[in-house]
Amino acid sequence: MSRLDRVDRAILRLLQQDGRASIRSVAERVHVSRANAYARISRMVEDGVIRGFTARVDHERAGQGASAYITLKIVQNSWRTVREQLLALPGVAHIALVGGDFDVLLLVHTADNHALRELVLNRIQSIPQVLGTRTMLVFEETDQVPPDQPAPRGAPQDKP
């Protein structure tokens, strides 16, 4: 796996801002040829730096009006088993194994508080390895999108 240079990081910022940006647009904005931009993006996909391309969703407009972070205490050494069970649940957006006062941090989106209650009390708490949960409702959320920045200094220029 290779290290990322300034041009690679600039390409990543652009793709995080707009995953649908064309190769031509990306190349122009970071001042490299289309072939160079294509090769860099392909390499970052192959290396797993870019894990995929996705849309940022307004969950409320998409019919998922209730969001919450749920912390879980789990049985020691049960992470893999718990993770697989959590992945199968509806509305799960993010799962992280963490250190601290709890073991797992889960982000979920559901249609409403009734569906959230069902998910927590009847689905998550019924997993045998889950020792306890704590639910924090999300009142408002904002995605951090990398700021639009000029092309990196010293980036190679296309020749006409």
Describe the structure.
- With 160 residues, the chain is α+β, with helices and mostly antiparallel strands.
- The two termini are 32 Å apart.
- The longest helix is centred in the N-terminal third of the chain and has 13 residues, at 34-46.
- It has helices spanning 6-17, 23-30, 34-46, 79-87, 113-124, and strands at 66-74, 92-97, 104-110, 130-138.
- The protein has a four-stranded antiparallel beta sheet with strand order 2-3-1-4.
- It is elongated and about 55 Å long.
- The protein has five helices and four strands.
What order do the helices and strands come in, and which of them pair?
Blueprint: H1 6-17, H2 23-30, H3 34-46, E1 66-74, H4 79-87, E2 92-97, E3 104-110, H5 113-124, E4 130-138
Antiparallel strand pairs: 1-3, 1-4, 2-3
Helix pairs in contact: 2-3
Main attributes?
5 helices, disordered C terminus, alpha+beta, four-stranded antiparallel β-sheet, single chain, 160 residues, elongated
